[in-house]
């Protein structure tokens, strides 16, 4: 009985301190990939986030988000985005250097769509969630409201910050995840409809300095 | 006794590891709902339709008048059975992807129409538009159900350009020429106010990709945008698309695709997929 319980409840993922980047983008994330945690599926990710600051340069955007991705090009993410005065995300999100809530979906052929969900503010706790509760349909939520969905297989889930440029200077930002202890970073398993607090993870360094540690709160700043 | 011990151990693990059961779509904090555009909106417009002020007539009237060829119809549907769904109307669109269309074209036409419907529902104090699902009929007749869909949180009543079609076409031709692009076609849809569909061609696709953001802002504005929506596609001399950008500002939904050959040079912001 005891061993069965231990096998069922995922405890550990090895932290490897991996640093990754793509297409001039700087990620600083905590992430998990399948197979995770003794064979568990990854069907959702949730954590509160609170942005202290978010100041991109003129031509780029900064996103703080919960994200699920397949092993190809598909993703669904929800969170906060702010673009510089000369930039925007997919034509409609943060078109005038404003901080907004957003959901972005990229389909299997690389088509990106951004859904703008109202203004956001620094110093406020938000809870972005992406979740696959049945079938292959992933829904995005922000603070309890259900928004867009897409059909996608899963490979990884991420919580963290993304800067769309390649330079580590000329912009700044600071964000804390899981600062509200009611909403630590958790992963979802649809077969049991259960959320599990993540104990350890892979990490991307990128341009951001990370502080804090799981299963508690963690922060990124530049 | 063994069972009691096991249950005690299980409970301890639940507490230690923070297992939550049956929780879908966590609730906390607040969703933003003020100043609900990504720019400073001009709120002096009301979207109206002729005839009865019912959701069914609003939908039919706007589809009838918008002037595009991809939206075959829309019907009031049911909301997904999940928690946290916004209250209001759900629409199920049927759109046609014509031969040669990128998928963004029929999806954009549905979004443009949805935005006008959303604003007309607000004009007549009807239930708000809460969600859409878009079923796409491919050129080979195959139907992809629920290919996309979604509704941003947007203020109703935004006013955009109501210049004449001929004036808009003239201005867009001039801006394309300034950007070194040749106009292939410029059409205007009228779900409510004018929304341009601009197809252009270039002999220098890498340059066009690099200049994309500047070109788009010159053509369509940004703060606030000139038009209630646009579809913009640039092709190379062979007719292969270099990039596509779409916007439906009454819905708060925008789309983008960049030919992977130009992903490294384009000035358009691209969210990157993680390299696991």
Q: Key features?
A:
heterodimer; A: 222 residues; mainly beta; Jelly Rolls; 6-stranded antiparallel beta sheet; 1 helix; globular; disordered N terminus; B: Alpha-Beta Plaits; 5-stranded mixed beta sheet; 4-stranded mixed beta sheet; 25% strand
What does this structure look like?
The complex is a heterodimer of chains A (222) and B (276). By secondary structure, chain A is mainly beta. Chain A has one helix spanning 2-8, and strands at residues 21-22, 25-33, 44-46, 49-55, 61-69, 75-83, 99-106, 112-119, 125-126, 128-134, 137-142, 145-151, 156-163, 172-177, 186-189, 194-197, 202-203, 209-212, 218-221. With 276 residues, chain B is α+β, with helices and mostly antiparallel strands. Chain B contains six helices and ten strands. Chain B has helices at 2-17, 55-65, 104-123, 165-178, 205-210, 212-220, and strands spanning 20-21, 71-77, 89-96, 129-137, 143-148, 182-189, 195-201, 229-235, 241-248, 253-258. In chain B, helix 2 packs across helix 3 (104-123). The chains are: A mainly beta (222), B alpha+beta (276). Chains A and B meet through helix 1, strand 1, strand 2, strand 5 and strand 6 of A and helix 1, strand 1, helix 6, strand 9 and strand 10 of B. Strand 16 (194-197) of chain A pairs antiparallel with strand 1 (20-21) of chain B, so a sheet runs across the interface.
Overall mean pLDDT score of chain A?
Answer: 89
Give the C-alpha Rg of chain B: 23 Å
Reading off the top of the CATH hierarchy, the class of chain A is best stated as Mainly Beta
Radius of gyration of chain A: 16 Å
Give the name of the CATH architecture of chain A: Sandwich
What is the succession of H and E elements of chain B? HEHEEHEEHEEHHEEE
Q: Tell me the quaternary state.
A: heterodimer
């Amino acid at each position: 009985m005891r061993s069965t319980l231990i096998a069922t409840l995922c405890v550990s993922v090895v932290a490897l301190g991996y640093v990754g980047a793509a297409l001039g983008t700087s990620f600083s994330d905590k992430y998990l990939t399948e197979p995770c945690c003794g064979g568990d599926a990854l069907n959702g990710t949730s954590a509160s986030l609170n942005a202290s600051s978010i100041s991109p340069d003129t031509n780029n955007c900064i996103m703080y988000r919960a994200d699920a991705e397949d092993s190809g090009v598909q993703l669904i993410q929800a969170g906060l985005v702010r673009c510089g005065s000369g930039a925007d995300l997919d034509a409609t999100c943060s078109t005038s250097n404003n901080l907004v809530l957003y959901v972005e979906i990229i389909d299997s052929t690389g088509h990106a769509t951004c859904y703008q969900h109202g203004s956001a503010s620094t110093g406020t706790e938000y809870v972005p969630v992406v979740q696959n509760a049945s079938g292959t349909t992933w829904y995005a939520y922000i603070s309890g409201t259900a928004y867009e969905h897409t059909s996608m297989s899963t490979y990884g889930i991420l919580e963290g910050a993304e800067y769309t440029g390649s330079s580590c200077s000329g912009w700044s930002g600071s964000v804390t995840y899981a600062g509200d202890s009611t909403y630590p970073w958790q992963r979802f398993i649809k077969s049991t409809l259960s959320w599990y607090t993540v104990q350890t993870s892979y990490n991307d360094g990128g341009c951001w300095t990370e502080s804090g540690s799981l299963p508690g709160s963690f922060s990124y700043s530049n | 006794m063994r069972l009691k011990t096991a249950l005690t151990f299980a409970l301890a693990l639940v507490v230690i590891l923070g297992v939550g059961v049956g929780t879908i779509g966590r609730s906390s904090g607040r969703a933003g709902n003020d100043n609900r555009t990504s720019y400073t909106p001009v709120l002096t417009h009301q979207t109206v339709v002729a005839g009865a002020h019912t959701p069914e007539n609003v939908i039919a009237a706007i589809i009838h008048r918008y002037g595009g060829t991809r939206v075959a119809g829309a019907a009031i549907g049911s909301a997904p059975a999940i928690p946290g769904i916004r209250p209001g109307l759900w629409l199920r669109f049927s759109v046609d992807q014509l031969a040669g269309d990128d998928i963004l074209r029929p999806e954009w036409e549905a979004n443009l129409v949805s935005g006008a419907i959303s604003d007309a529902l607000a004009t007549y104090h009807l239930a708000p538009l809460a969600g859409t699902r878009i079923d796409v009929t491919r050129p080979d007749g195959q139907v992809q159900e629920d290919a996309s869909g979604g509704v941003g949180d947007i203020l109703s009543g935004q006013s955009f350009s109501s210049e004449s079609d001929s004036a808009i076409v003239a201005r867009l031709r001039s801006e394309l020429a300034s950007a070194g692009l040749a106009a292939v076609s410029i059409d205007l849809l009228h779900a409510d106010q004018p929304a341009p569909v601009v197809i252009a061609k270039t002999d220098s696709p890498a340059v066009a990709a690099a200049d994309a953001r500047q070109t788009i802002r010159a053509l369509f504005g940004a703060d606030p945008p000139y038009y209630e929506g646009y579809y913009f596609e640039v092709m190379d001399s062979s007719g292969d698309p270099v990039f596509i950008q779409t916007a439906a500002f009454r819905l708060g939904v925008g789309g983008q695709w960049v030919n992977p050959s130009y992903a490294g040079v384009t000035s358009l912001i691209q969210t990157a997929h993680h390299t696991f």
